[in-house]
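One-letter codes give the sequence; the integers encode the fold. A sample entry reads:
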Amino acid sequence: MHARPSALCLLSVFVLLASPALAQESAGGGVPGVAVPPSTLLPLQAAPTPFELPGEAEALQGPLDVPPAAAALAPPRFLPTPLGPAPGEGKALAGVSLSDAPAVPGDMEPASPTAEAYGAFQRGYYLSAMRLAEPLANLGDPAAQTLLGEIYARGLGVPRDEKESARWYAIAAKAGVAEAQFRYALILLEGKAAERDDATARDLMKAAADSGNPLAAFNYGQMLIQSAPTGGFGDAITYFRMAADKGVPDAEYALSQLYAYGKGVEKKDDAQARHWLQEAARSGHDLAQIELGIWLINGRGGPSDPAEGFLWLKGAAERGNPIAVNRIAHLYKDGVGTPRDRVQAAKWVVLARRASNSDSGLDIWFRGLPEAEQKSALEAANRFRAG
């Protein structure tokens, strides 16, 4: 379901809470407490909110009430970004492989030696890229320094060396390269390859954001809220919008939450919230997909469209999201957005139980089915493979 790079009334979750953490590289190992790109989403985790959520009666509507236990907040994501200029409109940055990055930064002469190094990197000739970039970097070429930082960070053609990567990123960051500023800020936040320095990391993240790095903009927006949980939304929304306009799914989702709760904006605006939910859902943001499905079914922020809402939820359920699994069981059971189907409903009830996200209504309904239908549902659930 990817129309543009295209999750109940789920209590709107917010991705902007908890302490900053270093982004995981696509080829790197796990780091405790580290947030990761949408392609490897962490399970939902409970976290305190910086503003009061509405009561259950206000937040949950129609046939899609969610058990309170299902309402949880996702951790923030500090995301890596590819080298070079941002992808074209409509292409999400999160989770993009660096091997898919442009051959050269946009302001570089195509025939320059640095461009040759980036060209070799783009084609996967990492040793050649390093051989070309190293003398240039030693002569003070910031783009070549940034490239070396990336090669050492990911261990491309050479053993991974986080300290050497940090050294080159630090040099390029001082020269004003936005990508290096962003990367080095993440290194300083982690405090592993270089001594932790939150203040410098914040300054570098802002500089990278103000230079147009979309993921730096999203992360700096999170920092603003973390530093002022009750009043940072007004400043943060500018940076979220910068990132959202470049197609960062987490920023699109963050904007939907700000409009839905009236934080950082003049007043709540469900139409704008739904717009940004749609953008985030089409960009592949799983929580946005689930929440959009509910908004479509309930008619929140625009016309009701149960059939489309069902499709968004079904897609998330088929990928194994436990909240969507629960909701799709209800939709099949009640015939909302799809014809009533007891066999399918029963299958999803079994899957919801296995995901520890069933509820008393589903359990009572399932126990009332004939034994033969229960057995068929178990067999169908056993054949299911999320993906």
User: Anything to note?
Assistant: Confidence is low (pLDDT under 50) at residues 1-104. The chain has 17 helices and no strands. The radius of gyration is 23 Å. Residues 221 and 238 are 8 Å apart (CA to CA).
